[in-house]
Amino acid sequence: MSQDSCTFLQAGGGLGNKPSGHGHSHGGPGGHTHELMDGPGSFTHREALRTRDDWDQRAFTVGVGGPVGSGKTALMLALCRKLRDQHSVCAVTNDIFTKEDWEFLCRNEALPEERMRAIETGGCPHAAIREDYSANMDSVRELTRRFRPEIVLLESGGDNLAANFSRELADYIIYVIDVAGGDKIPRKGGPGITQSDLLVINKTDLSEAVGADLAVMERDAARMRQGGPTLFTQ
């Protein structure tokens, strides 16, 4: 196919219309509108941490997001093990139609089972952490009332690069990608990559096997995040 034969369209608009957010329903009253994005996002212009004094209603919440298989649940387990002896911690997981990640944390005794909650989001896990985060907020608040934790770790369901947490739900945002997706991922952008408080580039030990150049990923992450913190892990 020649370059001249390709036509590029911006998604989201109807015929002759400017792009706009779109809504859809999950077989009932669960429809929602997606936030319109006109660029990859900016670290320096990201939504600021909200000043609040209702910590007794919602504990400090750390959102852990990223694509499917990037290592979010493994990070949740590692954080629980690191923090639980010196801090009061609770956890919430999101899956589309199962409780798989919650069950993994339970099997590995990340925290006492009563300190963890599982949410089944349905087909749009990104909406459950941004456009309609009510189920997650309710779980975080319930855990806060019951256990008075210092920190609630909140794992999103695996989703695409356009997914990110609402600042009304997460006080600190960690976004996890991995090298198996290719060294192009950081420069693709998206709010998780550009606006998270910490970007984690995981599975660096696989870089040679998949032909990913870590130096390219480091360079592109620094450029896309305008110097915001990035951590390489395996």
TrEMBL record:
Alphabetical list of Gene3D superfamilies matching this protein: P-loop containing nucleotide triphosphate hydrolases (3.40.50.300)
Region described as Disordered: spans on this chain: 11-43
CDD domains in the cross-refs: UreG
Pfam families: cobW
GO terms assigned for molecular function: GTP binding; GTPase activity; nickel cation binding
Superkingdom assignment: Eukaryota
Keywords: Chaperone, GTP-binding, Nickel insertion, Nucleotide-binding
Coiled-coil ranges from the UniProt annotation: none
Cross-referenced InterPro entries: CobW/HypB/UreG_nucleotide-bd (IPR003495), P-loop_NTPase (IPR027417), UreG (IPR004400)
Keyword Nucleus: no
Record protein name field: Hypothetical conserved protein 750
